[in-house]
Amino acid sequence: MAELSGALWKYNLAKVVVLDVTDDYILMQPPLPSNCYPIIAELWMPRFGLASALAAAPIVEGYAYDWHERPLSESGEWYVGVVDRKLAMAFVGGGTGGDGSDC
Fold it and tell me: N or C, which end of the chain has less CB nearby within 10 Å?
């Protein structure tokens, strides 16, 4: 049986730190540095096409994507800012998803 040696996962996966940036919208303040937000999740995601994947799919239940920050080095962490989904929908859609639901 074939066996892979080494830690190939380091080259195929990226650490993604998900930050709750909802307070920026509640307080109507400019963004803070990434290290000032509460962390709500830390994930490992496939590195290939990560930037587009972050914006396309929900990362954490109940939150909507806001922004992402690429790492300074290839092995660094990605930071993703998310906003409470109900608050985000109130800003853009009047509080519902158009079908009468809360999301």
Answer: N
